[in-house]
Amino acid sequence: MASMEAELIANIQGEVRFDYGSKALYATDASNYRQVPLGVVLPKTEEDIINTVAICRKYHSPLLCRGGGTSLTGSCCNVAVVMDMTKYYNRVLKIDKEKKTVTVQPGIVLDEMRKATKREANLTFGPDPATHSHCAIGGMLGNDSCGIHSVMAQFYGYGARTADNTQSLTILTYDCIKMKVGPTSDEEFKKIIKEGGRKAEIYQQLKDLTDKHADKIREKFPSIPRRVSGYNLPSLLPEQGFNVASAIVGSEGTCVVILEAEMKLMPEPPARSLLVLGYSDIYAAGHGCPGIMKHQPIGLEGFDDLLIQYMKNKGLNVDDIPLLPKGGGWLLVEFDGKDKTESDKKCKTLMEELKKGDNPPNMSLFDDPEQEEKLWEIRESGLGATAFVPDLPDMWTGWEDSAVPPDRVGDYLKDLRDLFSKYGYKPSLYGHFGQGCIHCRVAFDMVTEPGIEKYKKFTIEASHLVVRYGGSLSGEHGDGQSRGSLLEIMYGEEIMKAFHEFKTIWDPQWLMNPGKVIDSYGQLADLRLGPGYNPPAPKTHFHYMDDDDKGTFARATLRCVGVGNCRQHEGGTMCPSYMVTREEKDSTRGRAHLLFEMLNGNVIKDGWNDEYVKESLDLCLACKGCKGDCPVNVDIATLKSEFLSHYYEKNRRPASAFAFGWIYWWSRLASIIPGIVNFVTHAPILRNILKSSVGVTQKRSIPSFAQQTFRNWFGNQQKRNTDKPKVILWVDTWNNFFKPETLVAALEVLEVAGFQVIISQRVICCGRPLYDFGMLDKAKEMLLQILDTLRDEIRAGTPVVGLEPSCVSVFRDEMCDLIKGNEDAKRLKKQTFTLAEFLEKKAPDFKIPQLKRNAIVQGHCHHKAIMKMKSEENLLKKLGLDYQVLDSGCCGMAGYFGYLKGDKYEVSVKAGERVLLPAVRGADKKTLVISDGYSCREQIEQMTDREGMHIAQVLQMALHENGKSENSAEAFPERKYVDNMKLHSTKLTAKRTLAIVSVLAVVTFGCLLFNRKKK
Ligand SMILES: Cc1cc2nc3c(=O)[nH]c(=O)nc-3n(C[C@H](O)[C@H](O)[C@H](O)COP(=O)(O)OP(=O)(O)OC[C@H]3O[C@@H](n4cnc5c(N)ncnc54)[C@H](O)[C@@H]3O)c2cc1C
Ligand code: SF4
């Protein structure tokens, strides 16, 4: 192995990774299977791929190509050299407007390809898997993928499947023969044969195979839009033009490596309309499909009431569910048109027809694109809704995409449901009903022998059922390992022989993704869990009680089902580090898989001390984007602090951990002599020494302490509104010591809104910075101190308003999980609000002042993930602002993260430069930049000429300007509110000054010494 690795390193420009960490990272996909690869190669060029294949051949090594790794059948994990094409081999090579084709390298993500074709030719690619934002074209070709708009591709393009939409492929065989394949005319065939060589040999053998089995192929392959199981032998029939490219599509990397793909494009619909139909149940919805398909929609999807129930149980899309018309089973029907009038008209024609029938469904035609998006979101949340439902057993893939003729969907759904009931399973059913493809995740017991046997028995019976319907085991995900051994039920002995011959023609040594599709390793082999699954249960700080009381660290690491949404390149918050580095190990999925492997202990053997796991978590910004955006809410930020708390039991923390983790205590100290501290942290040389002693990059400036803390200032104020309801203003470390103006603004707003504002008697802190360094004992101690300090008010039900989203999220998220079963913690969680939430819920009569200005809004990641931005947006609307919430994800600063030198600073800047910082720089100078997060405001302040305003300051501005528009012409409107709040400075005594200077000197010296020792 070492020599193969060395030879690969010597011969390719890309990356070669045979370390244990990379092997652990690529050991699974989105399936129930797990196989540890031999090593991983990230090729940069075609030559790299050719050299990799040649070297694998020399060492007789199995080879597996990988795209986004979102396969659900085990087709994308193997004991092989894995070639991950996505990092480098991902370019658009050519867009041919005339021919309506695009030629790409296989590592390109579908949405990236569609973005390019839309931009350059207003053309799109029909089949769009739900994973479109991160699946690769190579993977779609491997699986013969389909999607919601496969119906559009069927009616207005070239056919439902990726195979139907492939013009030609450039491929490489395991014996390193490169060739371009596609449909082959008789003349071309003759020419190839005449030229001789390996290509001629392959073509002749394919021809012989087709001739030999032609009748059986015609008989056994069902003629349905979504026949995806098995190799595409019908494409080789003469009536299908001996299409070798199409025959290769769906071979799941078991035959050849795809080097380049020429894909067929179709026009992008100029307008779309969405009609939602509510039927009495899912079967009635299924029966409605054939009639609707006669109207040739561009999408026809269905789902049942169980899916809605699961969503409600999980609190998913709950605000959008009422948009659905009444019913127990729903269809989403999408029509296109040259304009909205035409697409609406198509909907109305269908509605008229349905009204005339017996038992017409309830119908809602949607006009508002925002509402349409929410309804699609309900359908697309299928996986999120059906995995890890509270109080139900875990549900897995395994029988998730069977397909039948579309006109038999209603009956099939009934029979499938009956079969599930016979086995005691009760999955929700949803999917691409217009093309007869039914999705579900099932509560298969994957950890006991009897449970696994039952799963197998079920799939055998289900295979017979789907075959009786003239359907296919798979309608879009392929066969891989989960269905390979069931294929014979569908195809019979002769076709299985033909598949065997097909594979042998391409890969005589059987080393391309062996054990998948054909001669499978077995449905029950290589299971990720399996009967031996009994993970260790280490003692942890958090209790991981998200859904129910079953929470353990092991269960939390299992939550990631491999969907890969964290690998998308833009949109949403998750995952900022992956968006910047495009490394699996920097994605939510990669980190969750590594933690799973760490507990497993088979590849990662160092447990909590493991350096690879530590490295992978190192670039996690702890933004909680994953908790909010991931369909199964994987929370890497929490897992990271747990890991670090154990890692640092045996390893020494860096100086930065004490500098930032203990910021609350440093700030208290510094607030005695802020002027001197600011001098030291900003004076040339001194500041440089200080920064390098605590690992801060010289490219950042250290924020200045306020001349007076909010607490001190508040202490000098007269009590007001003493007869009004009380509210506790949470005096957080950041705003208190650095930006007290924010708290002053909130105080003013809350008092105008009719409240008596109080603050805690003691100086307390939620401890958020401690989480970043795994200082969880201390964090817990601080939470208990808070509960102790505020006990009476908490029990009296006094609400708490927090301005800093990361502090509010401690109370709303971490606190109850860290101190399990504490009733005061539960109360505090319920009565803590952001300012916008508080005004909405507790001050409905407060007349929100008007502010006629434009604004851009940067939502803090914790705000988006935990509290959500709805109340904030409602408030912005009520203010009358013309605003835009940026789809900018994480600002990149993320507390301490953006200050640290090296790759953290680089990632921080790149994350900020993705959307936020260009948007701020590009905004008109009169536009408000609204941003509640202290870190986000720091990032904006340090990287642009603008300063962000907290919503409290925006409300304050509105109160001061109420309705007047003359000020809206000023540039930099924030300066009056952010900069010019003159707070009186505290008096410095000589004694205090001397004491603090000495402390600072000792600390700096200590840090320098500490770092030197570490080196
Ligand atoms: C939540 C969820 C929803 C899904 N929804 C859909 C859906 O709507 N429709 C659908 O069709 N699928 C769906 N899938 C399955 C999967 O996402 C798709 O099939 C997707 O197209 C696979 O792309 P990938 O890049 O992740 O492929 P991978 O998993 O990386 O690879 C898939 C196969 O292609 C092979 N392959 C990859 N690159 C090459 C190459 N260059 N040469 C040869 N072989 C190659 C691999 O070896 C593997 O066998 C879903 C999966 C999940 C988890
Ligand atoms: S917390 Fe943020 S950076 Fe960390 S894995 Fe989750 S999404 Fe990525």
What can be said about this structure in brief?
This protein has 1015 residues and is an alpha/beta fold. The chain has 43 helices and 25 strands.
Key words describing this protein structure:
single chain; 1015 residues; alpha/beta; 5-stranded antiparallel beta sheet; binds flavin-adenine dinucleotide; binds iron/sulfur cluster
How would you characterize the overall build of this protein?
By secondary structure, this protein is an alpha/beta fold. It contains 43 helices and 25 strands. Strands 15-12-14-13-17-18-16 form a 7-stranded antiparallel β-sheet, sandwiched between helices. Strands 5-6-10-8-9 form a 5-stranded antiparallel β-sheet. A hairpin with a 4-residue loop joins strand 17 and strand 18 (437-439). Helix 10 (282-293) packs antiparallel against helix 15 (409-422). The radius of gyration is 30 Å and the shape is globular. Mean pLDDT is 95; it is low at 982-988. The protein binds flavin-adenine dinucleotide and iron/sulfur cluster. The site of iron/sulfur cluster has 15 residues, from helix 19, helix 20, helix 22 and helix 23. Flavin-adenine dinucleotide binds at residues 29-30, 64-72, 75-76, 85, 106, 129-131, 135-136, 138-140, 142-143, 145-147, 252-253, 257-258, 383, 476-477, 513, 563.
Write the layout of secondary structure elements.
Blueprint: H1 2-11, E1 15-17, H2 20-25, E2 39-42, H3 46-58, E3 63-66, E4 81-84, E5 92-96, E6 101-104, H4 110-121, E7 123-124, H5 137-143, H6 150-156, E8 166-172, E9 178-181, H7 186-195, H8 197-220, H9 244-248, E10 257-264, E11 266-267, E12 271-279, H10 282-293, E13 299-304, H11 305-314, E14 329-337, H12 340-356, E15 362-366, H13 369-380, H14 382-386, E16 402-403, H15 409-422, E17 430-432, E18 437-439, H16 449-468, H17 487-506, H18 553-558, H19 576-581, H20 588-600, H21 611-618, H22 625-629, H23 636-650, H24 655-661, H25 663-670, H26 674-682, H27 686-693, H28 710-715, E19 726-730, H29 733-737, H30 740-752, E20 756-758, H31 768-771, H32 776-795, E21 800-802, H33 805-818, H34 823-830, E22 832-834, H35 835-842, E23 854-858, H36 861-867, H37 870-879, E24 882-885, H38 903-914, H39 916-922, E25 928-931, H40 934-943, H41 951-961, H42 975-978, H43 990-1014
Bound molecules: flavin-adenine dinucleotide and iron/sulfur cluster.
